[in-house]
Design goal:
Layout lengths: L4 E9 L3 H17 L5 E5 L13 E2 L2 H6 L12 E2 L2 E7 L4 E3 L15 E2 L2 H14 L3 E4 L3 E6 L5 E6 L2 E3 L5 E6 L3 E9 L6 H9 L11 E10 L9 E7 L8 E7 L4 E9 L9 H8 L6 H4 L3 E11 L10 E2 L2 E3 L15 H20 L9 H7 L2 H7 L4 H4 L4 H16 L42 H7 L12 E3 L4 H10 L3 H4 L5 E5 L6 E5 L9 H5 L5 E3 L14
Parallel strand pairs: 1-2, 1-13, 2-8, 5-15, 13-20
Antiparallel strand pairs: 3-7, 4-7, 5-6, 9-10, 10-13, 11-12, 14-17, 14-18, 15-16, 16-17, 19-20, 21-24, 22-23
Helix pairs in contact: 1-3, 1-7, 7-8
Length: about 550
């Protein structure tokens, strides 16, 4: 069965802040010039915002450029930061670092506590009003190339394929979307972006990307526990000194609190469970009172790019470009990325629009990486480029080093540290054999402050068509038992925050086997990143599947 095809000037893959900003900027430029540009945006979630998960504190810098009148237009940036606190936790104590000692780069005044999903929903409405064709529920599953090897667009996945590969009664072929330029805005560890990096050698000469897993809950807390505009970050307990990570609590309007925990994925102990570290964190004497008497409303998890400037790949290739977290522009010490994602989407759009106006098609948008290097995004990342590598020395030494590095830049003395540190090995190579590492005893869930994985997945509104091919693919089916279980005690059953992976007794009595509960997957991509043999490959399921995050 042949696929139907549609033609556009620009196709954008991904409806996050970067993709939406790119689409909006293209239409703004078209309106200014009087020349129409056809723009199509694909989003694999059931709606714009369904798969968006972030803390989030938003630096409005990019929004100010894209929509100078965003406040009058009703953009949902309505909780300004009122107070900043940063704490170091031990098991029983909390030590607050005076704000005067914190680098100015970490000051959140002038920023906004937001639901990034709601921000994207608002941006989606603005894009549609400008004439962008948005297709939620359609997953870009395949990259299309022309005869010269340039990207000529993408194809959406087939619908109605059974688990065994046969076609069900509702089978429909995917649609081809052809474009003069295709912008990939899939977010962290995008499956198509991974293919592009390999095909066009985009990572040659750059450091490996580094990642964290961020796990988040949204709570409605008792009025007496709520302080609108309060921002609280912490390091330390429950993580040991060799494991990177930290927490956030953001007090939004309406007695809502976003609480989250980030674990850097270069951790060594295969017994560690990021999900359980998060649950344990909430029991700290300085944290627990916020949630006592409250109600948990939502849950989710996602991977976060942490590599910074030295991990940004080549951005452009024949026929397209990577924008936003598909390339990795998160500023780790600032714990922010949406402003950089939006701005790089805008820069990619401006380069694509100029090329279209010049009559070009499917060549390399060299103007985009040039514009990035001259932009405030580059400066934002350059100031903190040595913070993440320094954390490999341990959280205490690394944090002190990072603080000094940021202070020097704040004081205009960045030239005193002209070097750029390297990350070294990728995250999947950091695990040590289970026999060499201590076991971790996690407390039982109390179902008041701490909860099990399956009840958490329920709150994520995750849904997949059960009878479809698994989107979590094993390159070698023998590795989970023969390597991961034997050497690392099956780390996939702990690093996954959704209970997707379980080791169970084989039906034929031959021993243990890995069971993959793909329907539970919240699309965090941690398995694709952390699997020690890179044996798990995350591909897009049927469009519309996955989580549907409300207010996250």
């Amino acid at each position: 069965m042949e696929r139907e095809a549609m033609e556009y000037d620009v196709v954008i893959v991904g409806g996050g802040p970067s993709g939406l900003a790119a689409a909006i900027r293209l239409k703004q430029l078209a309106a200014e010039s009087g020349n129409d540009v056809t723009v199509c945006l694909l989003e694999k979630g059931s709606e714009i915002g369904a798969h968006i998960l972030s803390g989030a504190i938003m630096d409005p810098r990019a929004m100010n450029e894209l929509f100078p009148e965003w406040q009058a237009a009703g953009a949902p940036l309505d909780t300004p930061v009122a107070e900043d606190r940063f704490m170091i936790l031990t098991e029983k104590k909390a030590w607050r670092i005076p704000n005067a000692l914190l680098p100015r780069l970490m000051d959140n005044h002038g920023m906004f506590i937001v639901s990034l999903g709601n921000v994207c929903r608002w941006l989606g409405a603005q894009a549609e009003a400008l004439g962008v064709e948005i297709y939620p529920g359609f997953a870009a599953a395949e990259i299309l190339y022309d005869e010269a090897g340039a990207v000529r667009g993408v194809a959406t996945g087939d619908v109605g394929v059974a688990r065994d590969g046969t076609h069900k009664g509702e089978f429909q072929r995917g649609m081809e979307l052809h474009a003069r330029y295709t912008l990939f805005a899939e977010g962290a560890r995008g499956s198509l972006a991974q293919q592009l990096m390999t095909r066009f050698a985009l990572r040659d000469g750059v450091e490996p990307q580094k990642f964290g897993i961020g796990i988040k809950e949204l709570w409605e807390v008792a009025p007496g526990s709520h302080r609108k505009g309060l921002v609280l970050h912490s390091q330390g307990w429950p993580l040991d000194s060799a494991t990177g990570g930290g927490s956030f609590l953001y007090h939004l309007d309406g007695n809502l609190v976003s609480v989250g925990f980030v674990v850097h994925l270069n951790y060594e102990n295969p017994q560690l469970s990021p999900y359980d570290e998060f649950q344990r964190f909430k029991t700290h004497p300085a944290i627990r009172p916020t949630f006592e008497g409250g109600k948990r409303l939502a849950y989710g998890a996602r991977a976060i790019n942490e590599g910074g400037l030295q991990s940004v790949p080549k951005l452009a290739f024949p026929g397209g470009a990577l924008v936003g977290c598909a390339a990795g522009f998160v500023n780790l010490p600032r714990i922010k990325g949406s402003h950089n994602a939006m701005k790089t989407g805008m820069l990619g759009a401006e380069a694509a629009f100029a090329a279209l106006q010049a009559g070009r098609s499917r060549d390399e948008l060299a103007a985009y990486p040039e514009a990035f290097r001259k932009s405030w995004v580059y400066q934002d990342l350059h100031k903190v480029r040595n913070v993440k590598p320094g954390l490999s020395w341990g959280m205490l030494a690394g944090s002190i080093h990072g603080g000094v590095h940021m202070w020097l830049n704040d004081l205009g003395l960045g030239s005193l540290v002209p070097w750029t540190l390297k990350h070294g090995k990728p995250d999947h190579e950091s695990l040590k054999p289970a026999a060499e590492m201590p076991k971790i005893a996690y407390p039982k869930y109390d179902n008041a402050i701490t909860f099990d994985k399956l009840s958490s997945v329920f709150l994520s509104n995750t849904n997949h068509e059960e009878d479809q091919p698994s989107h979590l693919q094993l390159r070698d089916a023998s590795i989970p038992v023969n390597v991961n279980l034997a050497l690392y005690d099956g780390p996939e059953q702990r690093y996954c925050p959704a209970g997707v992976y379980e080791f169970v007794d084989a039906d034929d009595g031959s021993g243990r086997r890995l069971q993959i509960n793909a329907a539970n997957c919240v699309h965090c991509k941690t398995c694709d990143i952390k699997d020690p043999r890179q044996n798990i490959r995350w591909v897009t399921p049927e469009g519309g599947g996955g989580p549907n995050y409300p207010g996250m």
